[in-house]
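Dear support,

Our group has been running a series of protein-ligand predictions, and this particular one with DAU is the one our PI (initials K.S.) wants archived with full inputs and outputs. We had some confusion internally about which version of the output was final, so please treat the block below as the authoritative record. The input we submitted was:
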Amino acid sequence: MLLVTGGAGFIGSNFVLDWLENSSEPIVNLDQLTYAGNLENLASLRNDSRHIFIQGDLGNRELVSQLLSQYRPRAILHFAAESHVDRSIHGPEDFIQTNIVGTFRLLESACAFWRSLGQEERSQFRFLHVSTDEVFGTLSKTDPPFTETTAYQPNSPYSASKAASDHLVRAWHHTFGLPVLTTNCSNNYGPFHFPEKLIPLMIVNALAGKPLPIYGDGQQIRDWLFVNDHCTAIRRVLESGQPGETYNIGGWNEKANLEIVRTICSLLDQFKPKSDGTSYSAQITHVADRPGHDRRYAMDASKIERDLGWKPKETFETGIRKTVHWYLDHPDWVKNVQSGAYREWINQHYEAQS
Ligand code: NAD
Ligand code: DAU
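Confirmed final output from the archive:
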């Protein structure tokens, strides 16, 4: 049995689906169902007794302790977080609460549970913390990619809150001996990606005939990883990672934002040409830059390849085609996530940017 936090979000739900496709081991999925959590992502598991969904806050000590003693998981996989950088600029409070205070409380409950286990179960137990490359700060075009020993220099409220949570996880290992594993991953993309983030926002806006808002000059670089590759990497780290170690996960796929958006437009031009014969790229508009915008992220993922034999299967070219197809094939999913709360965020944020 695994306990997953945030398993109704983008990466968490892909992980739950991928895990249950490849294993008979059940999952308890604790998710608060914030705006980013969506049970529709897990609709295919509705009648699957291996998936036990619990709606709740990971910072609720009583609930978490009760779940741990009831289900006795052999591992906790901690995905839940507030994850959108722009939202952290508009309102950092939730990021501090969930990412820092929530992780702290989860660690306390996990540690108490781990201590209560017999020797054999104790040595097998793992707390896997899912983190991000953003904790390392920003790179210039010529800097070498981040490695596991790069100093932390977070620049946004989001990345600062994730950096704080990474430090707490590290401290619970060094001080209390909790067998933790930390993964720092680059930008994911793929099915069920909430359309506030670059790739799904651009697909959804393009199809709706809306502007495609590029922050600043659009030359910021991210290292893109197809979400299923991330899920496989997490599985490998859980199986064979060394407690106390951190693992960088990346796609070896650095692309500038403008290139990403142009690629999406040209795929849509092929798959769903506009009736007036113009290209979706005519919808590209430049808007004000994100405050404190990190220029470049790049991951050196050679440690996980060398030590655990993981490397990404998908290239950006194959992954982005699958992703664009997925959004074209799931208009109802898109329609359903575009709730009142979603529309409010889009209006508030992009009015301020233009
Ligand atoms: P997401 O925003 O799509 O999903 C987050 C999930 O956590 C949601 O289902 C939400 O309901 C849940 N949640 C939020 N607060 C909670 C709380 N207090 N208690 C319980 N559940 C709560 O995020 P994502 O993109 O799937 O990211 C998952 C994890 O991976 C995060 O920790 C994020 O920092 C990390 N990460 C994301 C990326 C990326 O590109 N998306 C890359 C690297 C690392
Ligand atoms: O690097 C890993 C991180 O990737 C994760 O830790 C975060 O949870 C995840 O949200 C993501 O952060 P980014 O800020 O890199 O992702 P986002 O999709 O918000 O933006 C990607 C790039 O595109 C970034 O340079 C900002 C730019 N952008 C984004 C949006 C939403 C635009 O130019 N226009 C937009 O409208």
